[in-house]
Design brief:
This protein has one helix and nine strands; from the N terminus they run E-E-E-E-E-E-E-E-E-H. By secondary structure, the chain is an alpha+beta fold. The protein has a domain at about 15-110: Sandwich (Immunoglobulin-like). The radius of gyration is 18 Å and the shape is globular.
């Protein structure tokens, strides 16, 4: 959640809060190599670029896509998927001006993803064996 902000007169661009992927204290690990980006926006109709860069000294742009801020979401759609274990950051930029903070995230390693899949399959088998309701 975004921290509460003091009351002030709203600017034309509105307030933006990056929701996911996001972390308050450490790098957020993302399960999928094509994440869904979410933000909260409470302003006028405005276009911006969602930019994903490598989180290193190069800050190389990996993907850039125009989006209307009112949509409040965008699925990563580059031809090449994001790499496991690699650090990235994303932000929203309008008219060459950063309008949101940058948020770091990491694509989960293949071994972590495989372990979670194995655990979920075991849980599913145990639930079916005990005839637990689907809920």
């Amino acid at each position: 959640m975004c921290p509460p902000r003091p009351k002030r007169k709203k600017a034309s661009r509105g307030d933006i809060c990056l929701i996911a992927p996001a972390a308050l204290t450490e790098t957020y690990k993302v399960w999928h190599d094509r994440p869904l980006f979410l933000w909260k926006y409470s302003g006028a109709n405005q276009d911006a670029d969602l930019i994903v860069t490598e989180y290193d000294d190069s800050n190389k742009i990996v993907w850039k896509k125009s989006v209307n801020l009112i949509a409040q979401k965008l699925l990563y759609g580059a031809e090449k998927t994001l790499e496991a274990d690699k650090l990235y950051q994303w932000q929203l930029v309008s008219n060459s001006k950063q309008i949101s903070s940058s948020i770091a995230f990491q694509i989960m390693s293949t071994s972590e993803r495989n372990q979670i899949e194995t655990d979920l399959l075991a849980l599913e088998r145990n639930l079916k064996a005990s005839q637990a309701p689907s809920e």
